[in-house]
Amino acid sequence: MFSSRVFRRPLWVLCSKGPAQYSLEEPRPPTPVCFEECLDSQPDWSRDMLGTLASKFYYEEIASKLRESQQHPSSACDGSVANNQGTFGWSTNLKNGTTIIEGSGPAYGSPMDSYRAEEYGKCSILQFLFLLREYYDLTLAPMHVYCDNQALVDNVNKAITFHHIKGHQDTQVALDKLSRPAELNVQTNKLAGNYQRLSSHKNIPARMFEGTHCHLIYNGQIVASKHRKHIRDHRRTRKLKTYIQQKTQMSEAALADMDWQSHERSVNMFKDGPHTFLVKFLHGWLPVGKLVSRYDPIKYPGACPSCDEPSEDSKHYLTCPNPERHNWHTALKTSFRHRCESVDTDPALPDLLLWGLNHWLQGTPIPAHRVPERITHLLHSQTTIGWDNFLLGRWSKHWTTLQLQYLQRNHIEIKNKKHGLSW
Fold first, then answer.
1. 164 exposed, middle or buried (CB, 10 Å; 0-12, 13-18, 19+)?
2. What's the predicted TM-score (pTM) here?
3. pLDDT digits (tens, 9 = 90+) for 69-117
4. Are 71 and 141 in contact (CB under 8 A)?
5. How far apart are the first and last CA of the chain?
6. Alpha helices, DSSP H only, in 137-249?
7. DSSP H or E stretch at residue 275
8. What ranges make up the beta strands (E) of 194-335?
9. Could you give the CA distance from residue 56 to residue 37 in angstroms, rounded to a whole number?
10. Using only C-alpha atoms, what is the Rg of the chain?
11. Closest Cα to residue 80, out of 367, 419, 346?
12. CB atoms within 10 A of CB 224
């Protein structure tokens, strides 16, 4: 039984009844009767890359328009990244502004960034044009392709010519006053954003491109670069997670529910003091009374210096009822509130954040019946992880998921600072 793969050379089959060898070439699949059938017959990786195509023209008309040089066709591509999920959008227009075809689809790989998402958009355009040219046996007119990612433009132009265009110009200039490339960029940005709102492919393994020998896959995602670093980090973080779980008595479910990427980003971005202080703070190694009294109980008493607590541990260091320590509680809550208001945060999230934090600092249980039903799973998740861990940057994954849903539900532009790791 032969594989469905098309072989470039004849298959040699040795006949068991004689010394002769017979050349048997695998039959080619029948020629598609229309271009739609040609697209449907493509391998999985190609269909994923083409994504969703939309046009008010028949494919024969599109081919005809792209053949005519006086039409001056041009294309643009853009990408969207939300909650570590990537999508792309692209559009092809004529000189008079007529959109002849649009495409949008999923981008895969880890870590996902705008470069990778827009790279998928570039490949989708080129794949479509290649298939159109091959099927209709035509010579395409010269085409300008625009992209707002300068790194992608620099890299691609080693082989073909792309042009850089500044992104999101519609935030400063009216759409009808924009240049044609800028208008194309706005159009493709909306396509990528719309696909982002409708798709949930982040945990679906990517298809292997033709000619790819192997992929390194971690947590169901292709590792696109820095393979050695990812493997080393995986080994190191696995031991660290085990240590945190044992020290905090965290359950397996809570460990899996924690947003480790956000925690890592927060640790790496810490600039308010020595990194050694942060490490000691995160793991309960600060020189509080209970710890330093082990060296010399007389010289270093274990009691809290601010109240009558006989044993000052890491938790009491944060929850001490002394009025002077309440000042930083107030400052922290105010900072959280201002940050949430500045980035279009779902109003229910800062309410729960401050409410849960306040109850933990006061040592009182959170009345779950007063929490909106749509975020009760977040309350349960963060409570399982621990509100003390919340102060240590160990947040539930549901915070960013609910924030993204809020932006999508209210049609708010999805920017990096409003969701995901940057939020």
1. middle
2. 0.63
3. 677 888 888 888 887 788 999 999 888 888 999 999 999 887 788 888 8
4. yes
5. 54
6. 150-156, 180-198, 227-248
7. helix 275-282
8. 217-218, 221-222
9. 18
10. 29
11. 419
12. 19
